[in-house]
Amino acid sequence: MKSTMARLALISAAALVAGAALAQDKSVKLGNLNDMSSLYADVGGPGSTIAAQLAIEDSGLVAKGWKIDVVGGDHQNKPDVGSNITRQWYDVDNVDVILDTPNSGVALAVNQITKDKNKVFLNSGAASSDLTGKACTPNTVHWTYDTYALANTTGKAIVKNGGDSWYFLTADYAFGHALERDTEAVVLANGGKVNGKVRHPLNTADFSSFLLQAQSSKAKVIGLANAGGDTTNAIKQASEFGITSGGQKLAALLLFSSDVHALGLNVAQGLTFTESFYWDQNDATRAFSKRFQARNKNGQPPTMVQAGTYAAVLHYLKAMEALGANPRDGAKVVAKMKEMPTDDPLFGKGSIRADGRKIHPVYLFEVKKPSESKYAFDYYKQVAMVPADEAFRPLAQSECPLVKK
Amino acid sequence: MLDLIGISSQALFGQLLLGLINGSFYALLSLGLAVIFGMLNIVNFAHGALYMTGAFCAWFMLNGLGINYWFALVLAPLVVGAFGVLIDRLMLQRLAGLDHLYGLLLTFGLALIIQGLFQNQFGSSGLPYAIPPQLTGGQHLGFMFLPNYRAWVIVFSLVVCLATWFAIEKTRLGAYLRAATENPAMVRAFGINVPLMVTLTYGFGVALAALAGVLAAPINQVRPQMGADFIIVVFAVVVIGGMGSIMGSIVTGFMLGLIEGLTKVFYPEASNTVVFVIMAIVLLIKPNGLFGRAT
Question: The CATH number of A27-145+281-360 is which of 3.40.50.2300, 3.40.630.30, 1.10.10.60, 3.40.50.620?
Fold first, then answer.
């Protein structure tokens, strides 16, 4: 009897200690895995670390006794480098969540490792709709945009305005292929046709050869299924080779505010493209941008990718707070994130679907003429808004095994 | 006949011409490398960074000082060349007589530092530089639309390349230079200031890189990575042409531009790698390069 009592006391004491230890696990480590120095570095890059830090400050968790750190890593646009950093972070450095990760090739690799290690992947920068399609996992949330939304918005708008024959200039890796595939589907579904396509290596300086091929295809629209420096070089050289003045229209299928800044309004004016965030949309986005710019080395406002990193981290930390402590169980955290409706100053109210797709409205923007731009970074005017439930791939068409049909 | 392989002769001419344009950049950059290697025995890995510095110099002259493209074409190479002289005097000369590897590591480190500084200041996506108003527009050649600026690039870089070749191979100054590489002590005995000559040669090679940078500014974005992306290809060009061979680097530069242009038509996915495939083949067959002398 006595020994039973003692044993009970011991067990309850042990449970208390364990419980206390669990309750005290209020530390979180975030890793911003990014292109830190090459063609996508201004799109996400070090700016995404700033965005994550702002989200940590706005979450108010540090004041409540949480310890939250952000580290950064450069994947150099190479899936093998990205995978190595990911494993090192997860296995050695106790990183709980990987952020942003532009470059779909790298993102798909991180996506798989994150699932295997049961961590969390909050992607903002990669575009491939496969992340929430056939490659979806219970550990990944794809926040900002994807190739389906881009194709469905820009592609549809251009075909409906008479741009019914297309030629694609495609970056030759996972992202370009996905964007080309999704756009082609939209073009064909809306009665257009595709005259041809050419695939260029990532990070190409000279597009003249590809542009010449596009020109001789006689297509009405040249679809640029690339991003960052590749897109800006292609647009700049298309204007040099008289392609736009010759009557062909350029469709920048993915363009960021940093690209427009790099091109200058003289070259970029009139381009229509899709984004889910623009710094100058409302008071809340302007207030955030002001704080962001003060810390950003080159003084530029946030891109939609950086904004998405902020909003994703904010929501992730809300879920953490709701869980009370870090469960060290990625799938559990993501399940909580999906359960809670999202609400942040940059993307408004929204939700995360079963396939990991975050949904919110997306916008069709047009680049202003130099004469219309009144102040620094005054670049876009909104042409159309696509509501959240129409912008992204319907769940009914999803190839994601997590979606119950 | 050409139609049989799925491309019209018109399109082919266009692509060949574009290849020549890219080739002229390869030629200008590899020429600078060849001059520096030939005279100083230094593998100048900072070449790409200095090319980028030339482009930024032109951008800064236009936007900060109001100096237009034409003056920048002269001034930017002078400024960057002077910087090159400084690099040689302060650093490279201390490595004279040591293994190639030391110069290579030093210049590689310099390249990283210079790029890092620019990136920190300007970000990675770069800055726009407009084509000078005298060269906007273009000509319809029947088989393609050739922007005036690109035509200018071909002509100008050809003139610069040939002038450099002439100066080194056919003039008295060039003869001194070549003699100083073979036997510096002997040339000094004739009362010629060899260290000064070597320094100026480095400065000249660097100025060539900066000149290519100014030429490239209106075509590409002016961005910190522009040299790093380019320089590896240019090194392959130098290896194919033969280290230190002046004419070799010019001819190989234009030739590889053409080959790359053709690859972009027939198998665009390989256009980034074709130069390296050729390099591997040349190294197997002629280890000293197409124009190199056996040592």
Answer: 3.40.50.2300
